[in-house]
Amino acid sequence: MAEFDRKVKGGRWSQEMETLLEADEKWMRIALTEAARAREAGEVPIGAVVVRDGDLLAAAHNSPISLHDPSAHAELLAIRRAADAVGNYRLPGTTLYVTLEPCLMCAGAILHARVERLVFGAADPKNGAVASLFRLLDDRRLNHIVSVTEGILRDECSEILSGFFREKRLASPP
Ligand SMILES: [Zn+2]
Q1: What percent of the chain has pLDDT over 70?
Q2: Does pTM surpass 0.85?
Q3: Which of 13, 42, 139, 147 could be disulfide-bonded to 117 (CB atoms 3.0-4.6 Å)?
Q4: Choice among 3, 22, 34, 75 that is catalytic
């Protein structure tokens, strides 16, 4: 936040940016509470929310183990619930917040749903399909481009994951 304060000083633009940053952090905190729910259920702690015009449309946490469903990633469940909530298979004007960079499958779903903006916390160097391994959401060959913001509450989003895997290793030493 301090770095952000130094970069923008005064003026309407900076106020708008600051308001956007505050909103991004607020929604990412809700995604983090979803991630904590996943952890409590023994799932890899990743959470997601879908927001439109300041309203929460859906929230979900990673649940492939409990749902016996390899596609039950937080983003995919949140997109399904949001589409169900608004009665439309497309979600124009929405922002999807997720604690970890989406994988190939979820980036594909984000494109199909026409999500307008994606905000993620931590990067995923092993599976990330938005910035790390692939850049699916700004591929000009596709007919939909998603605006992407990364690094919102990065440390917290990353810590909940590393803490989870640390505890797992302690619980089952090699
Ligand atoms: Zn995914």
Answers
A1: 93
A2: yes
A3: 147
A4: 75
Distance between Cα 17 and ligand 1 center (Å): 28
Give the pLDDT band of residue 18 (cuts 50, 70, 90): confident
pLDDT over 70 at 96, yes or no: yes
SS3 letters across the chain? CHHHHHHCCCHHHHHHHHHHHHHHHHHHHHHHHHHHHHHHCCCCCCEEEEEECCEEEEEEECCHHHHCCCCCCHHHHHHHHHHHHHCCCCCCCEEEEEEECCCHHHHHHHHHCCCCEEEEEECCCCCCCCCCCCCHHHCCCCCCCCEEEECCCHHHHHHHHHHHHHHHHHHCCC
Q: How far away, in angstroms, is 82 Cα from ligand 1 center?
A: 16
Cα of 11 to ligand 1 centre, how many Å? Answer: 39
pLDDT in tens, 103-122: 999 999 999 999 999 999 99
Told to judge if 159 belongs to the known catalytic residues of this protein, a careful annotator would answer no
Averaged confidence pLDDT in the chain: 93
